[in-house]
Amino acid sequence: MTRIFAYPLLWLALLVMWLLLSRSLGLGQVLLGGGVAALACWAVSALEPPKPRIRKIGVVLKLAAMVLADIAHSNLAVLVLIVSGREPQSTFVRIPLELREPNALAVLACIVTATPGSAWIDYRSADSAVLIHVLDTDDGEAWANRLKHDYERRLLEIFQ
Q1: Which positions ≥6 away from 155 have C-beta within 8 Å?
Q2: Which of 37, 87, 97, 117 has the fewest CB atoms within 10 Å distance of its CB?
Q3: Cα 146 from chain centre
Q4: Quick check: 92 and 51 in contact, CB under 8 A?
Q5: How confident is the model over 130-153, as pLDDT tens digits?
Q6: Of 5 and 118, which is predicted with more confidence?
Q7: Strand, helix or coil at 24?
């Protein structure tokens, strides 16, 4: 029972949304909306990722500073690419990862996607390899090595 009502605010928000969409406060709609909200909360609790155990807060701060700097640098690089009218040298890079922790992989996906000029395309858990699209690079291997050295190494320190 606690798994169904593990998220009481979500349950309430879904119920209110149901009632607003149905434009009715009838008992049938309240019961039906409550049931749908309970089912949705149960489904969400089944998908809940494992709780992260974050170590080395100093490394977290260094990683955050590095990500912000890389986002600013990538924004400028994409701007220069657009303004110059130069044709980008885009490529797909497959990178084998040592990371296995789901929260660390999610953080890495957010970092890659938040950085303009790169996009997380695919992850294969069987061989722990990620496919990333890079908008403009002349050396995919160097790009992959930088991601492994700068981000993966720090995420391994933080999460494992």
Answers
A1: 63, 99, 104, 107, 108
A2: 87
A3: 20
A4: no
A5: 999 999 888 888 888 989 888 999
A6: 118
A7: coil
Yes or no: say if 104 and 155 are a contact pair by the CB < 8 Å rule: yes
Question: β-strands 91-96, 129-134: how paired?
Answer: antiparallel
Amino acid at the residue 135: L
- Reference 120, options 102, 139, 134; nearest CA is 134
Distance between CA atoms of 135 and 144, rounded to whole angstroms? Answer: 13
Q: How does 45-69 read in b/e, with b if 16+ C-beta sit within 10 Å? A: eeeeeeeeeeeeeebbeebeeebee
**Rounded (10°) angle between helices 57-84 and 102-114:** 30
Tell me the pTM. 0.70
Token representation of residue 101: 């922790």
Q: Output the pLDDT for position 9.
A: 86
- Domains of the chain, by residue range, sit at 8-46, 57-159
